[in-house]
Fold:
Amino acid sequence: MTANGDDLAPAPTRAVLYLRVSTGRQAEHDLSIPDQRRQALAYCEGKGWKVVSEYVEPGATATDDRRPEFQRMMDAAANRPPLFHVILVHSFSRFFRDQFQLEFYVRRLAKNGIRLVSITQDLGDDPMSVMMRQIMALFDEYQSKENAKHTLRAMRENARQGYWNGSRPPFGYRIVAAEQRGTRTKKKIDIDPLQAEHVRLMFRLAHVGDGDDGPFGVRQIAHYLNDHGIRTATGGRWGLGMVYEVLTRTSYIGIHRFNVYSWRKKQRKPDDEIVEMAVPAIIDQAEFDEVQEMLHARSPQLKAPRFVSGPTLLGGICFCADCGGAMTLRSSGKAEHYRYYTCCTRNRQGRSGCTGRTVPMAKLDRLVTDHLETTLLAPERVNDLLAALLERRHAHQDRQQERVAALKRQAAEADAKLTRLYAAIEDGVADARDENLKGRLAELRAIRDSARADVERAEGKGRAQPIEITPEALAKFTGEARRKLRTEDGGYRRHIVQAIAQRVDVGDSEVRITGSKVRLLRTLIASGGVAGTVEREVRAFVPNWLPGPDSNQRPTG
Structure:
């Protein structure tokens, strides 16, 4: 009450504005938000409401609630007492295009005394108005899904024609303008010279290594890239997932797949919805296939850590020929002489599961290694394998020289452009304070320095010495391979056996040994001896416990 006894004037209704457009392009061109704001302010002025805040959502879809400004507004609406009474939108579709979600949030707001009001769909709170709002929301949801369907159809057709749809290109590629159609510029992706060399480097490390220690694993490749200052497309450091994505992406052999994964449903889309588009290839098909085979062979799903780190010679590569189950170790008695490989299915389920067999461990180990020594490492067979390898080696060296020449040209071109820009600055034609010019100079310097570094790394390896296959050299080679296969005490080197033989199937009348010729030759022709490369081939699961000083240092003295 005032001194005159008159009532205080009621406080005006406090309102907040929620303004949203669906795409970033609309936000950049201010196609809708200024108009929404103008109409909302005029509506509040006519109602006598006080606008206390604005929440602007540029380029966000209304099919879900993963919107930063929307969540910030809902957090403010949860205060008690409420900081405002009305959320004003241009239409209910600006708030949500999902009927269920719209009703969920309307009821959540109502519990705190806050109303959702639309300028163009002015409804009350009576049952008829609620029903009309729900019907409008259903139509908005239907329209949103139809628009998404037609947009995706157009994007798939665009991809079929070989054009890029606008997302970030894979590492190793860049977006370039292809043609002009009216006011729209159609774009494609082309090879980025600098990043493409880094892609080739990753595949080369995974395939043959750096020339010293054999093929690299995914973790070793990530460490190599980070140690040599090679960064991702966004300037970050490489991780295991990013390296694995590069090594398995078919884009690098000229086949880019569009519309593969549904991020909303978190699942891969059916094959008939995936579009394959042709792009420039960076890696040849043969090298890509061999890298995929190597990645598959190293997968922990195929060989458990206990088999890799355990003492059993054929652990993890020995299988029953009848059921395909693993042959596991079984001991009988206390002495080590009574040890057997036995079918795990039969061991668990009995003869009803599999009629598999049990074989003495020493007998099967001796049978496999004797076959490797006498048949696989026979001079005639190794001669054929070496001849094929040397031919591929020469082809690889020729390709390497071509890449070095291309890198030198790239460095020279970048250096020449820098020289011309420096001359333009000295002559006063260009302004050194121009931000665009500074960015261009930094880009050219990065291209030149990176290309020179790649040339130095490639030339630092040098051309390999020519290898001549003579009967004497072949006999010496195979003899050394057999010697390295066995240990000094008469046993076998497990890591070499498992690098040569990737699978042993044990049947009643035969034992079938399968493996990769390429992997065999990489194992045998390792720098520093036969066993040099093999240790890289077998995955290590034993952690390095406290590799440095103890983290809990005790006082000395």
